[in-house]
Specification:
The protein is of the alpha/beta class and about 100 residues long. The protein is built from 3 helices and 4 strands; from the N terminus they run ββαβαβα. Helices cover about 35% and strands about 15% of the residues. Strands 1-2-3-4 form a 4-stranded mixed β-sheet, covered by helices on one side.
Length: about 100
């Protein structure tokens, strides 16, 4: 029997709700989508942004968008980059390395 989806969620010091998307079958699990919709709805009710963390595939991003998530971060967009490197990239006008 399959375990129910348990996306990680937490309230950070800044008051943001985070939605972690490390669920392999995100699109196939209706219980995962229901939990995500509930967390996103809670954030909207409280006026708190709910960015998704750990987005690695276009499919995950599409599913998050479908349940109402408007912000995301993860390897799909870029590997972790040091703050000093981001500043230098902006000053150079460089693009993120997606590798």
């Amino acid at each position: 029997m399959s375990q129910p989806a348990q996306p990680h969620k937490g309230l950070s010091r800044s008051g943001d709700l985070w939605l972690k998307t490390n669920i392999p079958d995100l699109g196939a699990r209706e219980d995962a989508a229901a939990i995500m919709r509930a967390i996103i709805g809670l954030g909207r009710s409280l006026g708190i942004p709910v960015p998704a963390e750990g987005v690695e595939t276009p499919e995950q991003l599409a599913h998050l968008y479908a349940v109402g998530c408007a912000q995301a971060r993860g390897y799909l967009f870029s590997r972790p980059i040091a703050a000093a490197d981001i500043t230098a990239m902006i000053l150079r006008g460089s693009k993120l390395d997606q590798g």
